[in-house]
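A quick word before the example. In earlier lectures we treated sequence and structure as two separate objects. From today on, think of them as two lines of the same record. Here is Ureidoglycolate lyase written that way.
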Amino acid sequence: MKIETIREDTFQNYGVIFAFPGDSREAFYIVDQDEESPWRTALFRFSDKKTDVLERHPNTKETFEPLQGTALLLVASGEAPEDFRCFLLDQAVSLKKGIWHQVLALSEAAVVKITENYHVETEFYRLEKAWGANLHPLP
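And the structure line, produced from the sequence above:
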């Protein structure tokens, strides 16, 4: 599977990219909001290099904001979790409600900041086959 770059045209079905629009000179820009529920913020440290499980939250959007290390973000629409895509998580994003997802570390470990509803419903999907990034050192 190829690792894709997060761009508006490749990521729009899964969520929102945290960036100022176009050539905006604004100092403050609300990227994403959810008026239905209060939110919470957390740090998530992980070192998993492979996974056989995706998860989703039908009641909340969820941000992934890279802080340390290098990570991949796997995402799939609600109808087709086996048909996931893999993105290099090199910028902050907000996933839509119900998007299947998982993060994997490319570095020894990675840390992301997560913002989501205070009360989170989680569903899990076991992949038919475990998936991981097979990275090889360059010659």
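Notice the following. The first strand starts at residue 3 and ends at 4. We will return to this example when we discuss secondary structure assignment.
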